[in-house]
Amino acid sequence: MVEQIQIQTQIVVYSLIPTGEKEIQLQKNILFFSNRHKSYSRIDFVLISEQLMPLVQSIEIKHMTMSDPHAYICQLSSTDPSRTSTRWRFNLTLLENEDFCKQFEKEIVEFIMINKQSVLKDDRYLWDAIKGFIRINAQTFTSQMKKINLNKIKDLESSISKTELHQQTNYTEETAKTLSRTKMELNLILTQMAEAKTHRVNRNKYIYGECLSRILANKLKSVSHVTNIASIVSETGDIISDPKLINQSFSDFYKKLYTSDDNSSDLDKDTYLDNLNLTTLTNEESLALEAPFTLEELRQALTRMNKGKSPGIDGIQPEVYLKFWQS
Question: CA-CA distance, 31 to 69, in Å (whole number)?
Fold first, then answer.
C-alpha cells in the first residue's frame, strides 16, 4: 500500500502517465525470468512524460539476447524537417561478406563484357555505367540481406517465445540450453545491425553535429551575402555601382598590372633562349609521357590513396576498386 501511494505521488509530481497498459493486458507473455528462483514475473507498466505521449508511435515487447528481462520499447517520432537526405556511399562492410563478393565478381565481369561491345565508343560512358552498376548491385544485395535478417529475427523471436512458454510450465536444463543457443544466434544478427546503425549515427553526427569545421562552414555561409562588392571608386575618383562596370574595372586593373613593359623583339627573345643550356626530354621520354595510363600505374595510384576517408560524389571508396582489382 505504501509503495502504491509513493508511485501515485511520483506520477502527480512529475506529470507522468502509464504507457502501454492495454498492450500489457493483452500480452500475457511479458515476462522477467529469474535464474536464481527459476521463475517468471510480469512488468505491470512503464511511466512516461505527458508531453511525450503524443509522440509515441509504437510500443513493443522485444526479446533480449544477453540479459534475462525482456525489452519494453516505446518508439517516439522525432523527425527534423530541416534535414535533407545524405549522399549514398558504399557500405564497406559488404567487402567482408563472401556471398556479396562472389556474386559481385561474377556479375561485374558479365556487365563489362556485354557493355564493351556497345555502339558507344567513348570509354567515359562505360566508366559511368560501371559506377552505376556498383551502386545498384550493392543496394540490391543490402536490401535482400535486410529482408532475410528480418525474417530470421522474426523466426528466432517466435522460437524463443514458444520455448519460454514451455519453460513456464515444465522447466528443464536441456530446454534452457536450447533457449540460450537461440538467443546467441539472435544476438549475432542484432549486433551486426547495431554496428551498421552506429556507423550511420556517427556519420549523421558529423554531418549535422556542431563540429568545428561545420561551424566555420555555416559561419562563412551566413556572411556570404555581405561579401559582395556594392561599389568601388575609380581612378578618376568616381563611384561605380554598376556590376558590369565594376567587373570591367577589375579586369582593366589586373590586365594593366600583369602587362609586361619589355619592348624586346621576338628575335632578341629567341637569341636569349638559344643561349640557355636547358635540360630537354628525349623522344622516348616524350612518347612515354603522352602514352595512355597503364593498369599498373592506376593500381599504384589506388594503393597510395588514403583509406577510410570520405568518398567523392559517386560514393565509391578506393577500397572497393582494390578489393575487386583482379576481377
Answer: 7
Residue 60 CA to residue 51 CA, distance in Å, equals 20
Q: Which three cell numbers stand for residue 292?
A: 595512355
Reported as type and span, the H/E element at residue 48 is strand 46-49
Predicted pLDDT of residue 26: 39
For residues 112 and 177, membership in a common domain is answered with: yes
DSSP 284-324: HHHHHHHSPPPHHHHHHHHHHSPSSS---TT---HHHHHHT
Cβ pair 63, 161 in contact under 8 A: yes
Whole-angstrom distance, CA of residue 35 vs CA of residue 144: 38
| DSSP track, 4-19 | HHHHHHHHHHTTEEEE
Residue 197, in any domain of the structure: yes
pLDDT tens-digit profile of 127-162? 888 999 999 999 999 999 999 989 999 999 899 888
Q: Provide Rg for the chain, Cα atoms.
A: 34
Distance, CA of 19 to CA of 48 (rounded, Å): 7
Whether residue 33 is found in the same domain as residue 136: no
Question: Residue 221 and residue 29: Cα distance in Å, rounded?
Answer: 55
